[in-house]
Amino acid sequence: QVQLVESGGGLVQAGGSLRLSCAASGIIFSIYTMAWYRQPPGKQRELVASITTSGSTNSADFVKGRFTISRDNAKNTVYLQMNSLKPEDTAVYYCNAESPYNYWNYWGQGTQVTVSS
After folding, report:
1. Do the Cβ atoms of 15 and 84 come closer than 8 Å?
2. I need a labelling partner for 27 at 20 to 30 A (CA). Which of 6, 10, 15, 78 fits?
3. Other CB atoms within 10 A of residue 78 CB
4. Model confidence at 29, in pLDDT bands (50, 70, 90)?
5. CA-CA distances (angstroms) from residue 18 to 11, 12, 26, 57?
6. By C-alpha distance, which of 81, 71, 58 is closest to 29?
7. Contact of 83 with 17, CB cutoff 8 Å
8. pLDDT digits over 46-95, tens only?
9. At 36, which helix (H) or strand (E)?
């Protein structure tokens, strides 16, 4: 059974930091591209950042310089370090795992991040 379990969300003031974690089980973690998406209230889900099996990263323009994605294959975990948070970062953040050729694709249940002004 595949599970992606996010943690680390919460309420933080603008300018603060949070670190999200996503622990994966039931998959060969090292072969999956991992990503963080978010869904702000009333909006569509959007890609925040991704990290390939080789460690190459990509991030959305709206988080560049503030958020960093990383992975620890020994712990089957992907992280999202979020600094300089803004109220517009308020969203449910989801972890995603994509196998080569997108043959399998899995989502976590999401974790709420709320940034107060």
Report:
1. yes
2. 10
3. 30
4. very high
5. 9, 8, 26, 19
6. 71
7. yes
8. 999 999 999 999 999 999 899 999 999 999 999 999 999 999 999 999 99
9. strand 33-39
Q: Hunting for tokens 């107060």 — which residue is that?
A: 116
Nearest CA to 34 out of 107, 109, 114, 117 is that of 107
Q: Residue for token digits 């943690």?
A: 7
Cβ-proximal residues to 60 (8 Å cutoff; 6+ apart), any chain? 46, 47, 48, 49
> Under 8 Å CB-to-CB from 43, ≥6 apart: which residues?
none
Q: In this structure, are strands 111-116 and 10-13 parallel, antiparallel, or unpaired?
A: parallel
- Using the structure block, give the residue that is written with the tokens 């712990």: 75
Tell me the C-alpha distance between 91 and 47, whole Å.
Answer: 12
- Rounded to whole angstroms, how far apart are CA atoms 36 and 54? 17
Amino acid at 73: N
For CA atoms 110, 21, 5, 46, give the dihedral sign. Answer: positive
Determine the residue type at 91: A
